[in-house]
Design goal:
single chain; 332 residues; mainly beta; Cystine Knot Cytokines, subunit B; 2 domains; 4-stranded antiparallel β-sheet; disulfide bond; secreted; Cystine-knot_cytokine
């Protein structure tokens, strides 16, 4: 019997695929978030699942903690689940290991169920079929199951997450599906060199979309990047930041990079003054250059960025970090 609190979760955030005007509300981004496998354990105590029933060796049960926090208040955005896929690796099967020799040369059915109530002594086990797939007994490879409906229930109400069960038709599931840690590496699961590509253990891929809250008025499209104003005056310039290049990849799981932008250019008199003082400073520079430096092109408006990372307790968390993206440049 195998179980994990967060086998491996891959979470992707995409802005809603829609018109360019709608995308002006949220910077278009593609984020692939990969959570490292944390090892085998029982479901959390808060789930109130009976561990004796859960650890029944005749059953193969998985538990994924899919609590994904919504953006903080005031962000005017919310997460919507786009898809959720459970991926199991079908191993190469040898006929002599099969318990049921009648299926040799045939395909069998793998099925995934989610429990609709927690496992408790004296209670009838209640489960619902999520998805099933016919698979060849001998061909190895990844098998994907659509479990979006179940994940949506868990995201809406984590207390309804009672785990899932994987079954195989007439065969020992442990001979068909890889449930162990990465077989191709002796690296510890907490090692920073963990490789998702080499890990054959079950994984849950969650794709979400960041969308504006319903009823939010659309903003007027702004000319943020100084189109048609030349390259010398103060304006926003493109800058893509890769967290690996600045040493943040040791704690930031995702995104791998983001578009930060920066401000650059000259600040002539009366051009993009951030404050009245900026105008006065420009006049002083005009009449007495030695008295004070000229206004500088700087970020006047910034927006937050959502980062997925591990906290001090090793939990995968999602948090908004303020002032990460330059939205507007002015002279100050």
């Amino acid at each position: 019997m195998y179980t994990t609190t967060f086998f491996k979760a891959i979470v992707r955030h995409d802005t809603e695929s829609t018109s360019q005007e709608a995308l002006s509300d949220i910077e278009k981004s593609r984020v692939l978030c990969v959570g490292i496998q944390r090892g085998f354990s029982d479901p959390p105590a808060a789930s109130e699942i009976d561990p004796r029933l859960w650890n029944d060796n005749k059953k193969t049960r998985l538990y994924f903690d899919v609590r994904i926090p919504q953006p903080k208040d005031g962000s005017q955005r919310q997460l919507h689940l786009h898809s959720a896929t459970l991926n199991l690796f079908k191993t190469r099967t040898f006929p002599q290991r099969l318990k049921d020799k009648t299926n040799v040369g045939k395909s069998i059915t793998l099925s995934v169920y989610h429990y609709t109530r927690r496992l408790k002594s004296g209670k009838i086990i209640s489960r619902r079929l999520i998805d099933s797939k016919p698979v060849s007994l001998y061909d190895p490879g990844w098998i994907s199951f659509d479990i979006k409906d179940s994940v949506q229930v868990w995201m809406d109400n984590p207390r309804k997450n009672f785990g899932i069960e994987v079954t195989s038709e007439g065969q020992d599931l442990s001979e068909l599906v890889e449930f162990s840690m990465n077989r191709n590496s002796s690296q510890d699961s907490t090692n920073d060199t963990y490789s998702v590509e080499n890990d054959l253990s079950p994984s849950l891929h969650i794709y979400t979309q960041l969308r504006p809250l319903p009823g939010r008025p659309k903003r007027t499209l702004e000319r943020k990047d100084c189109a048609g104003e030349g390259n010398e005056r103060c304006c926003r310039q493109p800058l893509r930041v890769y967290f690996k290049d600045i040493g943040w990849d040791s704690w930031v799981v995702a995104p791998e990079y983001y578009d930060a932008y920066y401000c650059d250019g000259s600040c002539p008199h009366k051009y993009k003054s951030a404050y009245t003082f900026s105008t006065i400073k420009a006049l002083i520079q005009l009449f007495n250059p030695a008295a004070a430096p000229a206004p500088c092109c700087t970020a006047n408006k910034l927006s937050p960025l959502i980062l997925l990372h591990f906290d001090e307790d090793g939990n995968l968390v999602q948090r908004e970090y303020d002032d990460m993206i330059v939205e507007e440049c002015k002279c100050a």
